[in-house]
Amino acid sequence: MQTLFVQEMPRDGRRTSIQRVASVVLHLVLLAAFTFQFHKVVKAVARPHKVAAVIIPYAPGHQAVVQKPKPKIQPPKDPPKLPLKQPDPPPVSSGGDPTGEDDVSVATADFYPDPKPDLAMLPHGTNGDVVVDIVIDESGKVVETTLDQGLGHGFDEAVMAVIQTWTFTPATKAGKPVASKQQLLFHFVRA
């Protein structure tokens, strides 16, 4: 009698061969998918006579995207010619007065030294304005000063004393010197 020895494969061996077959099949499927995607991209690029395309590279886990480029806007060869109307020039005037009379000019300062009062009179960190209303007579001299806003501490009086020395070319109306009023503003800062 003859005995036949059949050797059984261990169960681990069967699993290993099934895993190998599954790996080969999976690799073949992935290779086929990449090949299909590659042919799809090549076909899109091979059509230059049609619409151009921008291809974004394939990234694992994402599908390749083909986007149409944005059209370039070209300006027209000949821009439209529109008639341009020039605005009318303003009427020529030699001045004006709210009362309707012409040839009015304002007083301009001829001699006007800057008031430089002692900033030490002000507390540290103080800043502010001194506003003075003045009346200028027909000869161009300051005849009246009125404090409109001040800083105090003897500071305002020092500014007004300097303004009293100022001289002006007087304002004129119809070519004749006249008295006028002006407002002066001085800004001071003590650090």
TrEMBL record:
Q: Name one GO cellular component term.
A: membrane
NCBIfam families registered for this protein in UniProt: tonB_Cterm (TIGR01352)
Task: List all membrane-crossing ranges.
Answer: 21-39
Q: What organism, scientifically named, is this protein from?
A: Terriglobus roseus
- Descriptive protein name: Protein TonB
Query: What keywords does the record list, in alphabetical order?
Result: Membrane, Transmembrane, Transmembrane helix
Which InterPro entries does the entry mention?
TonB/TolA_C (IPR006260), TonB_C (IPR037682)
Coiled-coil region: none
